[in-house]
Design a protein that fits this description.
0% strand, mainly alpha
Length: 192
């Protein structure tokens, strides 16, 4: 019996080895057949990882450099060369610096003019654009509902109730000014 068992185990081992060799030959044929494609995919993957790594390193360097320049500008706010470097490196940080400087000297028209020219820059963050518009007293998304409310009040003073109703109903439901708009409608006899 033990001889039979040994023969069976040897036969099973040979079958598994045979299947393994067969699979190896199949994979070798597959690799030979698609060798160019596999090689190209590997090269593309390596190049992609290298480019992503390079881009992230350059972005990190630019952030550190922009922050260094900004810190220097806070110490020496009148240094024109640092100001120009920051403007070239990071327009958003340059805008924040200008807003900070205008808050110190609100009558400085030169800084306000610089902010107006920057506000049209396509690289500027849209949120910063709206902050500039609000800061300069121009139409801003932040103050959209507030502007509508003020305009509706002027129309109500002129007794143009219908036009005021249209403006007041344009104020968003989730706006903090919606309750004031409802009160204005109520006290002016506009049906809700």
């Amino acid at each position: 019996m033990s001889l039979k068992d040994n023969l069976k185990s040897i036969k099973t081992d040979l079958n598994t080895e045979e299947k393994m060799i067969e699979n190896f030959i199949r994979s070798e044929r597959l690799i030979k057949k698609y060798k160019i494609y596999i090689f190209l995919i590997a090269i593309i993957a390596i190049v992609w990882f290298a480019i992503n790594f390079g881009i992230s390193e350059v972005e990190e360097y630019n952030k550190k450099e922009s922050n260094r320049i900004y810190t220097q500008l806070l110490k020496y706010p009148n240094d024109e060369s640092l100001l120009n470097q920051l403007k070239q490196k990071n327009v958003n940080l340059y805008t924040v610096f200008l807003i900070n400087e205008i808050q110190k000297d609100n009558n400085n028209t030169n800084l306000k003019n610089q902010l107006k020219t920057i506000s049209s820059n396509s690289e500027l963050n849209p949120l910063l654009q709206n902050i500039i518009f609000a800061f300069l007293g121009e139409k801003s998304i932040f103050l959209k509902d507030y502007d509508k409310l003020l305009e509706a009040c002027k129309l109500l003073e002129e007794n143009k109730i219908g036009q005021a109703d249209v403006l007041l109903s344009q104020i968003n439901e989730n706006s903090s000014l919606k309750q004031i708009a409802k009160n204005l409608k109520h006290y002016q006899g506009i049906s809700q």
